[in-house]
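@channel sequence for tomorrow's demo:
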Amino acid sequence: MRLRTRLATAWLLFLAVTLSAQQATLAPPEQLTDGALLYRLDDPSLLSPPGPVAVQALKLDPRKVTLEIGRGAGAEPPRTTVDVIAARRPGAIAAVNAGFFSMESGRPTNFLKIGGKVVSGTSRPRGAVGWSDRSGATTLLFDRVAVSSPGKGRLEYKPLIDSSPREWSRVQNAVSGAGLLMLDGRELTEWTDERITAGFDTTRHPRTVIGRDGQGAIWLITVDGRNPAISLGMSFTELQRLSQRLGLRSVLNLDGGGSTTMWAAGKIINHPSDPTGPRPVSDAILVIPRERQARTADHQ
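structure tokens (generated this afternoon):
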């Protein structure tokens, strides 16, 4: 028993040193606020074969900031650019685009839950992330999930891998993407259950990602693409390589392509790929410092 304990302790120490060494290779970050660091990566070796790449990565302390979902607004289709969605939320310090949506109607096409209310469900089990605030920290939940309404106001959550329907019923906010890339340190290589479009995983695209590292920090990441002078984008395999570089253990690919946008410090800081500029989207993930969230709640 003592030997096993010593071996387990040594293994945990090895993991901690490895993760620290990986993150030590990053350039010094910009501090947006207490608990929010912005890293920029442009290492060509993140791609295979190597090539130009531009990555913006927010590392968030879940005890000092929390996440919310903001919606697009206005006339049909109800879509708004990420910077405008963020500007409507007092206290927001950063934001990225979130879930998939219909370009025609502007409405979300997959699982979306805001403030405990399911806005949209999905019959196909897509990779999803949910979160709630517990004991003063934001906790993320990852899995592949289908959400349906069998009638009489009931909802059925059907996670496929390593969580329970009860856990998904209890999260306050959730959004699904297309491609659960890592779960608790295990790289996933098969996405048949998610029924993603052929070639979506192997072709390089602009990407938006949410993840959690081994110390519990939350990461929001954008990868620019479709611009050979700046960045080629990433495939799923390359996103997993990036995730390993950052020490992430659970990772979800969100909506990307022309939707990929990161807003921070009052401006859009990535390079959206649409020729017309940032694409209006259905919803966005917002970063809110906890002290500002509390002040806002006090004034409501």
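heads up for whoever presents: Confidence is low (pLDDT under 50) at residues 14-24.
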